[in-house]
Amino acid sequence: MTCDLLIENAAVLTVDPAWNLYEPGFLAVRGDSIAATGPMAERRAWEAGTTVDAAGMLLMPGFVNVHTHIPMAAFRGACEDLDDRLRKYIFPLEARLVDRDLVYRASRFCLVEMAASGTTCFADMYYFEDEVARAAREAGLRCVLGETVVDFPAPDCPEPYGGLEYGLRFISDWTGDPLVKACLAPHAPYTVDPEHLRAVRRESEARGLPVLMHIAETTPEHERYSVSHGSVLRYLDSEGALYPGLVGAHMIYLDPSDIELAAARGLSVAHCPASNAKGGRPICPASDLAAAGVSLGLATDGPLSGNGMDMQGILGLYPKLQKVRAGNRGAVPAREAVRAATLGGAEALGLGAVTGSLEPGKKADMILVDPDSFSMQPVYDWYSAAAYAMRPSDVAATYVGGRLVWDRTGMKGFDQAEAMADIRRIADRCRGTIAELTGGAP
Question: Within a 10 A sphere around the Cβ of 39, how many other Cβ atoms?
């Protein structure tokens, strides 16, 4: 049998339903999909156009980052530790500075960090999302991109709710792209009224698309809807705004009835432990959601909210915080954490049949990890090593659809030095506005 790419002699961590781990093993790629994987004893049946000897390395599914705002890399580190940061500082900052060029160039910059740390698929919601799509296509990463719908004038739409029309054009323009799935992203329950939430649902279900939204994230939101409806989720349910395909980011303020409701309505959850913790918010009942049958993926949030865009930090923090919350060391085993960062994220985005595990027929979205580092050695268990010891610098190569998109020589789709120069120019442009808004604070 023939294939285009064959990776051999690796420890192959598949995250398949049987938790198969081949050590040593191989993986064969034909076109953009996985043709076979298994122990090295079965490798002799294959001839490849290109063979990679990955002796001593770990081959695993690429990370799926279920909630980001990658153009906000332009503002990373700005307005930190300030009260009411979003409304007082970030919304005004975006209104003054965000344009097509910033979105495109800041996205390219952020994609370098993501690819270099092993992310192969991500979901994003922001403005000018077609520019994020353009950058992601150049980088070669798989993505679900949601155009923001909000009740005030936005950088790409001068009229409230203009993001709905913009988003429908975006969806039309990118339909059929092999890497980019365009969709709608109502910002939050407190910035999108019920009429427009229902319109988003109607348009999305007609096209078979996911919907991305912040849900039950902030204290004021929680207090407002707890008074009126008992909880944020019960408010949304009363308006017909909970349904399969809706991906709720954060989902912090939930009681047991909310968790049952999320499972009954078929929601997915993007769990963002780092940005939640940085915001001083309660620990999301993520393991309870997963136990209830809710599709749960992990996410960094945007580079302004969580700062780091590597999934390694999130993968380690998720089980640790759930253990704290439960008071139980065994609350989230390492392999379940690895699954949440890979296949769980793919399932949350409706891509579980496409990516997230190393199985024949799925796209060859995978990373090679070099464990020969002071952070990872010695390795006794690959799941534990991946969950608790792996660092971004341990990633040696990132593949999407069998195509090498990054290795230690740099990005393959564009010049990453140019992306760094771009972000420095953008930062110079932003400094004055940030100082003005914060009164000179960082």
Answer: 13
